[in-house]
Prior knowledge:
Layout: H1 2-10, H2 14-37, E1 47-49, H3 52-56, H4 60-70, E2 78-80, H5 84-96
Parallel strand pairs: 1-2
Organism: marine sediment metagenome
InterPro entries: ATPase_NBD
Protein name: Hydantoinase A/oxoprolinase domain-containing protein
Amino acid sequence: xxxxxxxxxxxxxxxxxxxxxxAAEELAAMVAAVASxxxxxxxxxxxxxxxxxxxxxxxxxxxxxxxxxxxxxxPAPCRSVESPVVGAVTLARAEAAR
Length: 98
């Protein structure tokens, strides 16, 4: 469904645009809540973006990143991962190498 919403938004549909904007806002709010809970501030922290909507809805990742910047958060590295488990292991390895 994410691909269809993205396609419809690209064709100028205001409702589809609102769906994508709201999804980005909600996802950014979740990232912000977890970042706060983990004690991350505006300093860089790793973020893995996974899931059907984030991986297949063109432009959704950039919308989420824009919303995060509006919240003074700038995750780095920020990676797309097909499998959340692979992403978690990759980030854990990077953290362990520090």
